[in-house]
Amino acid sequence: MIFDKKFWSENIKTLFYALIIALIIRSLIIQPFYIPSSSMEPNLLVGDRLFVTKYTYGYSKHSFPFSPAVINNRIFFSEPNRGDVIVFKTPTDNRTDYIKRLIGLPGDKVQFIDTNLYINNVEVLRSKKFNNKKIFCGQRSINTFLFEEILPNGKKYDSVYSKDYTYKNSDQFIVPKDHYFFLGDNRDCSKDSRFLSSVGYVHKNNLVGKARFIFFSSDRSVGSIFSFWKWPKSIRFDRFFKKIN
């Protein structure tokens, strides 16, 4: 076989350009993410794969793979809206991706009193939709109350609370300047801003992007994606291209 130097040179160039374009798209426009935990049930399930827009809140070093120190602060910043579902880097290691719902803006006071959520000393309105919603908490199935909550800006979404109400009361959280307070929709099964030693308040530079829609979803407990004979049960076709509220 004759070694064709030009052939290999052109193919390597093509591959290089393709990688550069993919990197630009991933860093500046849109990036796929996988949901590994049940902290955002019932809205996001383990096995959901979703697209996150990177341009929504501007850019920081965390917009790029491995968070290189190419940007000191955030550029082209746009303030996120209360209720947005956002991917961010955890402040404890600036490396791990979390996805939660934005509840508290800079300067807000957030508190739980008798299981009810308060923002700036005003109770967040919620109405019960279902009396016994079974969802996951890790590997366990738990019984919950399903509520529709309405934030002060009118944003509506579903949240679940364990029937045991394991998280009833909290101190008042005062969100610092340039920081945000996040909660998981699965309120009694989420490590979020309530836990100051592990997550806490999230600086605006740690925001990665806004979750937009689910493009694929599968239940790994039923079978691997490679087990095509199990696709009718393992693949959640009804969640394809579902907008994230």
Give your account of this protein's structure.
The chain is mainly beta and 245 residues long. The chain is built from 2 helices and 15 strands. A hairpin with a 7-residue loop joins strand 3 and strand 4. The chain is globular. The protein starts with a helix and ends with a strand.
Could you name the key traits of this structure?
single chain; 245 residues; mainly beta; 8-stranded antiparallel beta sheet; 4-stranded antiparallel beta sheet; 11% helix; 36% strand; globular
Total helical elements: 2
Secondary structure class reads mainly beta
Number of strands: 15
* Percentage beta strand: 35-45%
Number of domains: 1
CATH architecture: Ribbon
Helix and strand pattern: HEEEEEEEEEEEEEEHE
The CATH topology = Umud Fragment, subunit A
Helical residues, percent: 10-25%
Poorly predicted tracts of residues: none
Round the Cα radius of gyration to an integer and report it: 21 Å
How far apart the termini lie comes to 57 Å
Superfamily (CATH H level) name = Umud Fragment, subunit A
Sheet with the most strands, sense and barrel status = 8 strands, antiparallel
Mean pLDDT: 93
